[in-house]
Amino acid sequence: MATESGRVVREGQEELPVSGAAAAHSHTRSHSHIQFQPLTRTSQWQATLDHTRSHSHTHHFITPSHTQQQRYSCRLTHSLSAMTKAKRGGQGSEGKFTKPSEPLFPKTLQQTNLNQKLSICSKLCFAIGAAPKEVTSSASAFFLQIYLLDVAQINAFQASLVLFIGRVWGAVTDPIIGFLITKSSWTKIGRLMPWILGCTPFLVVSYFYLWFVPPFVTGRFVWYLVFYCLYQTLINCFHVSYSALTMFISTDQKERDSATAYRMTVEVMGTLLGAAIQGQIVASAHTLKHCPTHNMSASYLGNSSGAEIVKSLVHSQEYLSHAKEVYMIAAGVIGGVFLLCTVVMFLGVKEKEDPYGPKTEKQIPFMQGFLMVMRHGPYLILTAAFLLITVAIQLTQSNFVLFCTYAAGLREHFQNIVLVILISAVLSIPFWQWFLQRFGKKTAAFCGITWIMPFTMMLVFIPNLLVAYIVAVSSGLSIAASLLLPWSMLPDVVDDFRLINPYSKGHEAIFYSFYVFFIKLAAGITLGVSTLCLEFAGYKTGSCTQPAPVVYTLKLLIGAAPIAFIVTGLMILVLYPINEDVRRRNKLCLDELRKQSIGSTTSEDLSNA
User: Fold this and answer.
1) Element (H or E) spanning 16, and its range?
2) Where are the alpha helices (DSSP H) in 287-413?
3) How many whole angstroms separate alpha carbon 82 and alpha carbon 38?
4) What is the pLDDT of residue 222?
5) Residue 96: what are its φ and ψ, rounded to 5°?
6) Transmembrane segments in this chain: where (predicted)?
7) What is the C-alpha separation between 191 and 583, in angstroms, rounded?
8) CA 21 to CA 19: how far, in whole Å?
9) Under 8 Å CB-to-CB from 414, ≥6 apart: which residues?
10) Residue 393 near residue 522, CB atoms below 8 Å
11) Half-sphere exposure of residue 214, counting CA atoms within 13 Å on the CB side?
C-alpha cells in the first residue's frame, strides 16, 4: 500500500520542476520509517499550522523556491505522521490493541484512490447540471424587467421593488442554505445531491408562476414578489449545492479545472438556450405591430371617432393577451429543460468525499468556520473583485433589451443580437481555457474582461445594426471570461484554505454560498437602483416610445456605469495572491496530506484486524 501511495503522490507532483519534486519525494522517503514521538494537537501540530499559515501568506506575492516547497511539504508530512502514530499508540495499553470507537480517518472507499481521473462522459454530465440554473437565469435576466413593465403592467417603482427585494432575499438565503448543507449528513448519493434533487420540482413550479399574469390587478405586485422570492430561494438550494459539488468530483486540480471548463461552456450554452427559447417565443410580444398607428394623445382622442378609439384599444388588448400566452409557453418549455438536465446530471455524476485531512473528534461550529472563511485574504479579494465585475455584466444584461427597444432603435433585432453575444461566448470558452492554462488565471482575467469596455461605449455612441453585431461578437469574449474565471479560481482559494486549516473540514458550502450571497446582494441593489432610475427619468409603462431622459438613462446604464464597476474590480484583482507557483505548491502539500490519510487508514485496519 505504501508503494501504491508513493506512486500516486509522485504522479500528482509532476507539475513541479524536476528538482523540487525529486527533493520533496526523497525527503519524504527518508522519513518514512522513522519512529516519531507522540505529538499533541495543541503544541507541535499547532506550531506546524502556524508555520504553514506564515508560508501561505508571506510568499503569496513572491515566487516560492524549491527549498521552501520541500520544507513546507515535509513539515506537514512529519507532523501528520507523528500525530497519527500518537493517536494509534493511545488506543491500547500494555502492547495490546483495542478497537477504537471512532478512527482518526473515516474509512470511505473513495479515499483509496487519489488519482481520480474523470471520464469525458462524467465531465459532460457534471457540466449539463449547470444548464438548468443558467437557462432560467438568462430568461429572467434579459426579459423579467420588460415583462413586469410591459406585460404584467406594474409600474416601474413596483418592478424595482420586486427585483431588489427578490435579489436581496436570494442573497440572504444563500448563507442559510450553506449552513444547512454543512449540517447535512452523507447519504448513499452524497451530501449535496439530495439538495439538488429535492428542490428541483418545486423550483420548476415557482418559475412557471413567475411568468403567469394573475386575473386580478391590485395584488399583482405581491404575486410577483412572493413567487420571485420563492424562486430565488429554491434556485439557491440548487446552485449552492451544485457549485460546491466541484470540490467532490475529483481531488486533482487539473481534473477540476477541466470539469469547470466543461461546466462554463455548458453554462454559456444554457444562457444561450434560455435567451433563444425566451427571445424567439416572446419576440412577437415586443414588436411595433402592437403599437397604435397614432399616439393616444389628447388631440388624437379629441379628433377621432369613438369607433376608432375602441378599435385601437381592442387591438392593444389582443396583443397583450398574446404576450401573456407566449410568456407562459416559454416558461413551460424552460421548465421541461430544467427537469431533463437535472436528471442527466444525477445519473452521470458521483459525489466523492476528499481525504485531504484527518477527521476531527469535535465538529467546528458554523459561526467559527464562517469567521475563518471571512478572514481568508484570497477569498475576500477574489469575491470583491468579481462582485464588481459581475454587477457590471448583469447591469448591462438586464438593461440591454430596454436599450435596444427604446434607445438604439433595434426593437426588431434585439433577440438576434442577444443570440450573437451568447454564441460568441460559447465559442470562446475553449480559447479562455487554453489561455489560462498557458498564461495563468489572473492574466486571463485582465485580458478577457477589459475587452468589453471600448466596444460597449461604441454601441452607446454609434447605435446602428452593423455596430451592434460587431459589439455583440466582441462582448461575447468578455462575458465568457467573466463566467469561466471566478468559478475556476474559487477552488484554488478553497485548496489554499484547506492547507492552512487541515482540521477544519466541510466548509466548501460556506465558500460558495457566501460568494453567491455577496454577488446577488450587490446585483440586487444595483438592478433595483437602475430600475428606480428609470422611474425617476419618467418611464412610461406599456408605451411604444420613451421620453429623452429615459433614453439618456439607459445609455448610462449600458455604458458608463458598467465600465466604472469593471475598472474598480480589476484594481482589486491586482492584489489577488494565488499565482501559478502558489497553486503548484498547494497541490504538492495537499497530495502529501492525502497520502498520509490513506496510509494511516490502512495501518489502523491492519492493527484492528
Assistant:
1) none
2) 298-303, 306-348, 366-374, 377-402
3) 6
4) 93
5) -110, 140
6) 192-210, 222-249, 326-349, 370-393, 413-432, 444-462, 468-488, 509-537, 557-578
7) 27
8) 6
9) 279, 286, 400, 401, 404, 405
10) no
11) 15
pLDDT at 401: 81
Find the distance separating the first CA and the last CA of the chain, reported in whole Å: 16
Q: How far apart (Å, rounded) are the C-alpha atoms in residues 130 and 430?
A: 17
Tell me how far apart the alpha carbons of residues 576 and 570 are, in angstroms, rounded to a whole number. Answer: 10
CA 251 to chain CA centroid, nearest Å:
19
Q: Are 59 and 68 in contact (CB under 8 A)?
A: yes
- pLDDT for position 10: 37
Sign of CA dihedral 182, 184, 190, 193: negative
| Chain Cα centroid distance, residue 331 | 23
Radius of gyration of the chain (CA): 28
- Which three cell numbers, joined as nine digits, stand for 185? 449528513
Give the type of residue at 263. R
Distance CA(490)–CA(246), nearest Å, equals: 10
Count other C-beta atoms under 10 Å from residue 218's C-beta.
6
Q: Which residue has the cell 440586487?
A: 524
Distance (Å, whole) CA 540 – CA 550: 9
* Rounded-to-integer distance, Cα 252 and Cα 254, Å: 6
Confidence at residue 384, expressed as pLDDT on a 0 to 100 scale: 92
DSSP string, 553-601: HHHHHHTHHHHHHHHHHHHHHTT----HHHHHHHHHHHHHHHHHHHHHH
Angle (CA) 525-529-533 rounded to 5° is: 175
Cell of 282: 416572446
Estimate the crossing angle of helix 253-282 against helix 306-348, to 10 degrees.
160
Q: Is the pTM value of this prediction over 0.70?
A: no
Q: In angstroms, rounded to a whole number, what is the distance separating the alpha carbons of residues 505 and 253?
A: 18
Residue 253 contacts residue 310 (beta carbons within 8 Å): no
What is the sign of the dihedral through the CA atoms of 101, 599, 361 and 247?
A: negative
Per-block mean pLDDT, blocks of 10 residues, the chain (609 long) = 39 39 40 38 42 43 39 42 43 39 41 61 88 88 85 87 88 83 80 89 93 89 94 90 82 78 83 83 69 48 50 61 88 92 89 58 68 88 91 84 84 81 84 88 90 86 87 87 86 85 71 81 80 86 82 90 92 90 82 70 58
